Automatic annotation (TrEMBL), chains A, B:
UniProt enzyme class: ligase
GO cellular component: cytosol; mitochondrion
Alphabetized UniProt keyword annotations: Aminoacyl-tRNA synthetase, ATP-binding, Ligase, Nucleotide-binding, Protein biosynthesis
Catalytic activity: tRNA(His) + L-histidine + ATP = L-histidyl-tRNA(His) + AMP + diphosphate + H(+)
Name listed for the protein in its UniProt record: histidine--tRNA ligase
Organism in which the protein naturally occurs: Sphaeramia orbicularis
Family in the record: Belongs to the class-II aminoacyl-tRNA synthetase family.
Pfam family, any one: HGTP_anticodon
Family annotation (NCBIfam families): hisS
Enzyme Commission code(s) on record: 6.1.1.21
Aminoacyl-transfer RNA synthetases class-II family profile domain ranges (all copies): 11-376
GO molecular function list: ATP binding; histidine-tRNA ligase activity; identical protein binding; RNA binding
Origin: domain of life: Eukaryota
Record gene name: hars
Positions annotated to bind L-histidine: D80, L81, T82, R107, Q123, D127, R276, Y280, Y281
Length: 464, 464
């Protein structure tokens, strides 16, 4: 339809009941984890003053949605949840908090529906703000990513870890001029999508880096390991010349020692090629990716969803990411007072895509309601009795439905149960009413029992 | 602060953790009720095509937020959840569904913070779409309002019921010209805020109605009752001349018979003064109001919050409203196919205001986390042991916290428990570690017990 086309063009989507049921399940898993770790939650408005968002996202600022100037302040839709969080902390002079925030954010990006990329999408953020001893909250963030990905059962995953200070130190010792750190960093960030050859070309040809510097970077960014690699690099002749790099490497060591206590080192890898896009990171950064097994299903989805569009059938890649940003809150404080922060954002939309695809592939039917019993009748003229019993069930806290027809056919009542997965049907009939009983049928097996109809009926149903 | 001022000016607010905890409790009550009645849920984007919203809200259209034209389609923030719902049904050719939707909507209205009125606010909608036998889904909507207000325990309430057809019939038999129905209807709608004298003045002086017609309307709109009033008006010489009014009155009778079966007639009153603002209603309409006892607390809040602003200390009034809108979906269908709908919107922001005020007045402390146990140590150098035990608790599904310090003072660890209401603290010490036990202290009573530290510790904690 025309409306559907426009919907496509504007890059948003409706969630239908089945998608919502899956979404609720995923949210519950994530929220349970955040709560298990003692997080509070806050909410901020969907729009912020335009000036709040200005100068926080670098090049990506062009993707911010502005509201029309209808008089009053200039407003923009939030681009992420991190900047509003920092604004909230500064505005309320909060110096420590552990909070999660699940809400929609907005980006005027090219939508790629088959990859689960929309212009309106959910973010699930967990952040720890406060002046604490090094790497303890950082380790908890990684533990949380581990727990969530494990519980969601999306297949195998890896959590890559690096540190902005190590990257900057590396650039310095490889001879990258100071003013090119950021742009070279964003080229390094493309290593998950581009070959080293192409990344090198971009560095040398487009960004004017010397071939020698690029090759030295190339050596470092191919390194992966654990605590041992951090130790090795602390001894590295070149790297050890950078104080910044050494600080980062020591922290990586400390981080791994805490990750060992948390028993999550089997999935965490220290990866010098990890750069991450956002400007505001100041220390440790991390990103979780699904390894092939977990990704396969979405590739399939993209192929099914958009025939012929092979470009779309790339891996979902990153499903969580985050890091330390110690300077952001200070940008909103009139006196520049800093509040150190570390956090993680779960890439929930990609996870939804995978879960939806899983639900489609499996034979299992996704229920979109939780109705336990349908109140039906076999004969005509029993509407009043049906309504009365249904109300009794509701009053007893039982999830119950009744058809909104005076004289529905028994078959259509039973069909509704089967379609929406309602396990029980209470069937009223003249004879049963005379006898003061109600027939209770298990929809799946058609087993039937009779129960006396009184106020105890309802509590009784609870136990079934 | 400047930021805070701007925040005030733009008419939005942040929710802090305490407000969120209260909000979560209210949402859970409401969602449980919607689920008990077998509702599915959907979600729609925060912005719609501007044309989707055009011509749906009458005069209030000026309150719609538009997005800036940054290329592409013209977009507006949603003004309510009903129009997006109707658009969703038409677009997906859905002819029956029972769904709830809880989400934020946007209105460029004059914010009145002390009355809990913001430019961004939540709506909680429950709607039943489909061609069914008369008044059965309508009665269920009223039952839902009753259950929610009862469970939220906000004090006594009344649910006023009327029907657009009765209003229109009444206007006709009182001699209101056809083209003045709508404007006279919106004057009648002011009866909850203005005296009859003032309403009459507006009708006669501003809207040019004859004094005689106004007086006749005045007689009708003072009428309140139940099924008996509907019966009485069906016999009324004047009213019975209008076919429309008779259809509405018969349905009110039928509605009350179903409400009797649902045992909710003690709170429902047929009130001919109820008009409701929105254009799209076609049949039964209703509105729930808190009666004085329930309202008092918010009056107090307004007085405390804004000293001297007596204007603000009005009653919170309506806390739920809705009705039947059989024509809206057809407006979005290319062939104009109609889908009859009836629904209710819970005035959640007003309910939040009351609940927040209640929480403030009561001595009871609102917990913002659900942490069950804090892992603490009495001596220095036990960080590793604390982290290890905490991870064990997390892995066992227990909500646990640990301080992010190498050597926190026992006192500050205990203080944190008291401040955030954590009931248990597990205290590690050298001796206990040697003995393989952990001291578990009940924070409130300071009772202590020792437990062997092994993987059974965690499940054991669950039962406390």
């Amino acid at each position: 339809t025309g409306a559907q086309d426009s919907k496509g063009k504007i890059g948003t989507r409706d969630y239908n009941p089945k998608q919502m049921a899956i979404r609720e399940k995923v949210f519950n898993t994530i929220i349970s984890c955040f709560k298990r770790h003692g997080a509070e939650t806050i909410d901020t408005p969907v729009f912020e003053l335009k000036e709040t968002l200005t100068g926080k996202y670098g090049e990506d600022s062009k993707l911010i949605y502005d509201l029309k100037d209808q008089g009053g302040e200039l407003l923009s839709l939030r681009y992420d949840l991190t900047v509003p969080f920092a604004r909230y902390l500064a505005m309320n002079k909060i110096t420590n908090i552990k909070r999660y925030h699940i809400a929609k954010v907005y980006r005027r990006d090219n939508p790629a529906m088959t990859r689960g990329r929309y212009r309106e999408f959910y973010q699930c953020d967990f952040d720890i703000a406060g002046q604490y001893d090094a790497m303890i909250p950082d380790a908890e963030c990684l533990k949380i990513v581990y727990e969530i990905l494990h519980e969601l059962d999306l297949g195998d995953f890896r959590i890559k870890v690096n540190d902005r200070r190590i990257l900057d130190g590396m650039f310095a010792v490889c001879g990258v001029p100071d003013d090119k750190f950021r742009t070279i960093c964003s080229t390094v960030d493309k290593l998950d999508k581009m070959s080293w050859e192409d990344v090198k070309k971009e560095m040398v040809n487009e960004k004017g880096l010397s071939e020698q510097a690029a090759d030295q970077i190339g050596e470092y960014v191919s390194m992966q390991g654990g605590m041992d690699l951090a130790e090795h690099l602390l001894q590295d002749q070149k790297m050890s010349q950078s104080k910044q790099a050494c600080a980062g490497l020591s922290d990586i060591k400390l981080l791994f020692s805490y990750l060992q206590l948390f028993q999550v080192t089997d999935k965490v890898v220290f990866d010098l090629s990890l750069a991450r896009g956002l400007d505001y990171y100041t220390g440790v950064i991390y990103e979780a990716v699904l390894t092939q097994a977990g990704v396969a299903s979405v590739t399939t989805e993209a192929q099914n969803g958009a025939p012929g569009s092979t470009e779309e059938s790339v891996s979902v890649g990153s499903v969580a990411g985050g890091g330390r940003y110690d300077g952001l809150v200070g940008m909103f404080d009139p006196k520049g007072r800093k509040v150190p922060c570390v956090g993680v954002s779960i890439g929930i939309e990609r996870i939804f895509s995978i879960m939806e695809q899983k639900a489609e592939v499996s034979a299992e039917k996704v229920r979109t309601t939780e109705v336990q019993v349908m109140v039906a009748s076999a004969q005509k003229n029993l509407l009043e009795e049906r309504l009365k019993l249904t109300a009794e069930l509701w009053n007893a806290g039982i999830k119950a439905e009744v058809m909104y027809k005076k004289n529905p056919k028994l078959l259509s009542q039973l069909q509704h149960c089967e379609e929406s997965g309602i396990p029980l049907v209470a069937i009223l009939g003249e004879q049963e009413l005379k006898d003061g009983v109600v027939k209770l049928r298990v929809v799946a097996t058609r087993e039937e029992v009779s129960h006396t109809v009184d106020i105890h009926t309802a509590p009784h149903l609870r136990t079934i």
